[in-house]
Amino acid sequence: MTGKIDLGRIYGPSDDVVVREIEGEIVIVPLTSGIGDLEDECFTFDEWGRAVWSKIDGSRPLATVVQELLDDYDAPDELLQRDVVGLLQELYERRMIVEKD
Amino acid sequence: MTMPAQTYVRKVPSGAASLWKSAKPALARLDIELTERCNNDCLHCSVNLPAGDIEARAFEWPAARWKALLTEAAGLGCLVVRLTGGEPLLRSDFEEIYFHARRLGLRVMLFTNATLVTPRLARLLRDVPPLEAVEVSVYGLTKETCEAVTRVPGSFAACRRGLALLGENGVPFTVKGAVLPPTRHEAEAFEAWVAGLQGHVGTPSFAMLFDLRSRWNEEKKKNGAVAALRPDGDEFVRFSRRHGDGVVDEWRDFCGRSTGGRGDRLFTCLPSAASAAIDPYGRLQFCLGLRHPDAVYDLASGSLREAVTEFLPRLRKTRATDPAYLERCSRCFLKGLCEQCPAKSWAEHGTLDTPVEYFCGIAHAQAVAAGLLDGGEKAWTVRDGSERAKRRKGS
């Protein structure tokens, strides 16, 4: 899947995955084929990725999410924004998130 | 908070062991027998009521109850559900139950004979993969040998059609055979055929030590015939060694890792840890073979949570009282090889803790082949069994 992540757009979890919480971890389980490289793969995040994922709920533009994270994290604006976009790019390419209207 | 320098998504195998790092879930795996009915009538099978058995069908839980139960299971932390039978694809609501399980994020292990796989089901398994290879029981390399086992004309062609549909749709599957009088001679050719199948993963396994029926009803009449199909110890060892002695080394390793006998605790097997099984009528037990009334919890008058957090842990504390078990099994260092367990004891004797001579004989034959026992020596009289295994491994 191609397409650039746009700070002005709204993103949310895709219907192609199931999100479960196991021992405090977010675990993304593929529902449809082609999400992982292998059929038995799930996906999880570290603490930072989890914080980003929890805000990607289809309710507000990505720029707003970035601003909220800047309020929470002690990080240079550019670095944080780059990592958020990088993470979402990977999630988007894996069909774990989609653009919401 | 400080943001780490490099992040992104981490891939993990979806097995229970890797996802549950510290705390154990109340329920990690659930086995569901959707029906006791089967469209085959295999010589050796212990769960094959006729496909059209109206009474059995009437009492089977409907999809709505299974879906509610699966939702409850996921809430308890369950990661994997096995859908089996009988033949689970006999149920017209199979797809509904399957999709619900996957929608909950559960991995699905599907056990089937593949004869009822349709193009529509194969596409569903392709598009919404079970995340586990489908396990297909295939009985025989030719129409003659296969249908001598299944005793259903047309089952050979139907099975091949089902396998082809899985393969064409890229649905991974693994084949399981059985060593039976009609098929015993074709094991190596069977393995070669399986290796060339589109979509097959792993190596085929073969059932030999067939279970007797665990339901103490009219079907028990079949047990004599099933028992007669099982190999004796020498035959079992000979078949197991057909590709060399690597398997014998494994048997020796099992025994070397053992720390003595089972003691008087009855439930020491892996399935008794955070797993449960439910029959088609909503009765829960440790595993599908264990139908002893004291070991069954009726979900119609309780809840899955109560069953796995109160009933099963209480049952897990059960101690053996049978003098023969305490004299033999509790002290036997072959526990890693022997299939003795409460379910086998129940199927063979109607108790939880009676030694099953057949499995005892098989384990002893393995131990003799591995050089751990002299012929005629009884393992439970050996005091240094695990040390023997370690010494033989090192020698």
What this model shows, in words?
The complex is a heterodimer of chains A (101) and B (395). The two termini of chain A are 19 Å apart. Chain A is globular, with a radius of gyration of 13 Å. Chain A has 3 helices and 5 strands, in the order E-E-E-E-H-H-H-E. The model of chain A has no long low-confidence stretch (mean pLDDT 87). The longest helix of chain A has 17 residues, at 77-93. Chain A has a single domain (10-95), classed as Arc Repressor Mutant, subunit A, CATH 1.10.10. In chain A, the strands form 2 sheets. Chain A has a 3-stranded antiparallel beta sheet with strand order 2-3-4, with no helix packed on it. Helices cover 37% and strands 24% of the residues of chain A. Chain A is of the alpha+beta class and 101 residues long. Chain A has helices at 47-55, 62-72, 77-93, and strands at 10-13, 17-22, 25-30, 41-44, 97-100. In chain A, strand 2 and strand 3 form a beta hairpin. With 395 residues, chain B is an alpha/beta fold. Chain B folds into 2 domains: 24-244 and 269-275, Aldolase class I (TIM Barrel), CATH 3.20.20.70; 245-266 and 319-395, no CATH class. Chain B has 16 helices and 12 strands. Chain B has a 9-stranded mixed beta sheet with strand order 9-8-7-6-5-2-10-11-12, covered by helices on one side. In chain B, strands 3-4 form a two-stranded parallel ribbon. The longest helix of chain B is centred in the middle third of the chain and has 14 residues, at 155-168. The radius of gyration of chain B is 22 Å and the shape is globular. The mean pLDDT of chain B is 90. Chain A binds chain B through residues 18-20, 22-23, 25, 27, 29-33, 36-37, 39-46, 48-49, 72-75, 79-80, 83, 86-87, 90-91, 94, 96, and chain B through 1-4, 6-15, 19-23, 25, 74, 77, 79, 102-105, 107, 126-129, 131-132, 172. Strand 4 of chain A pairs antiparallel with strand 1 of chain B, so a sheet runs across the interface.
